[in-house]
Design a protein that fits this description.
The protein is built from 11 helices and 10 strands. β7, α6 and β8 form a beta-alpha-beta unit.
């Protein structure tokens, strides 16, 4: 497909009589991309996700999925929710059935799947997410990380083309975030288009190949992660912190200007290599 799989075109939205949460926002995402939607608290990230999956309707502008304008007709929304799944920031807002197995199966059964097909599909997804041991557990007994995976499982059983995750690393420790990164990588290899919201620039830089930055309800930038997140002025305007890898890389460039011609490092190994070059240059100056 040549065009974007999901797009927002000049979208505006406000809650009631409040000032606009989103003002003339446009976003284009190609199939198979890992996109981090960045912004400070209140920038409009969660609202944009709810617009992209049809939960909310824009006051003006259009949302398109595979080139089709999103409609609020109930018959079309059901198909949209199969194509664009969303995992909310707080999984308790999404989980409601007594057990994990029942909760994950709900969407399939609601769409008319047989119990046998639903059971087999749920088992496959729980196995893939490495939570099959939770199948018969009561949802209210799960940890936050387990609940987030169960909420994701409830989306994946519908095999959506686009997966939206609102602040997926919120409330997780380092190990939980690392496990989530590994899981998102598996999703990406499965050819899903994944969009996450976050204000954690380190997380976004490590995972995404593309970022979009919201600032005060407007789209401030969209592009490759290395190019966008290295813009100091943009980070200040959007009230975001530079990723620590970029901060360190900039220090290396101040010591060794020839590194300005090198690409920004994407991980620790690439950064350490540039640090060694900078240290060697510093020793030569002495």
């Amino acid at each position: 497909m040549d065009g974007p799989i999901i797009s927002a075109e000049n979208v505006c939205f406000s809650y009631g009589s409040q000032r606009a949460v989103l003002d003339d926002v446009s976003l284009r995402v190609q199939a198979g991309r890992r996109v981090a939607l960045l912004g400070a608290n209140g920038a409009g990230k969660s609202t944009l996700l709810l617009l992209l999956n049809g939960t909310l309707a824009p006051a003006s502008g259009k949302i398109r999925i595979n080139g089709r304008v999103v409609s609020r007709k109930s018959s079309e929304l059901a198909q949209l929710h199969r194509e664009v799944g969303i995992v909310l920031q707080d999984p308790d807002d999404q989980l409601f059935a007594p057990t994990v197995e029942q909760d994950v199966a709900f969407g399939l059964l609601n769409l008319g799947s047989s119990e046998g097909h639903a059971r087999a599909t749920v088992k496959k997804i729980l196995d893939a997410l490495r939570i099959s041991g939770l199948a018969r557990r009561p949802v209210h007994e799960l940890s936050l990380g387990e609940k987030k995976r169960v909420a994701l499982a409830g989306v994946l059983v519908l095999e959506p083309k686009v997966i939206l995750l609102d602040e997926p690393n919120a409330g997780l420790d380092h190990d939980g975030t690392t496990a989530l990164l590994d899981l998102l990588e598996e999703l990406y290899k499965g050819c899903s288009t994944v969009i996450i919201t976050t204000h954690d620039t380190d997380f976004a830089y490590q995972w995404a190949n593309e970022v979009a930055v919201l600032a005060s309800g407007r789209m401030a930038a969209q592009g490759e992660a290395t190019a966008v997140l290295a813009q100091v002025d943009l980070s200040r305007r959007a009230r975001l912190r530079l990723p620590w890898i970029i901060e360190m890389a900039m220090q290396c460039r101040a010591i060794c200007p020839k590194l300005n011609d090198a690409p920004m490092p994407r991980d620790r190994d690439e950064l350490f290599q540039q640090m060694r070059i900078a240290m060697h240059a510093s020793e030569q100056i002495r």
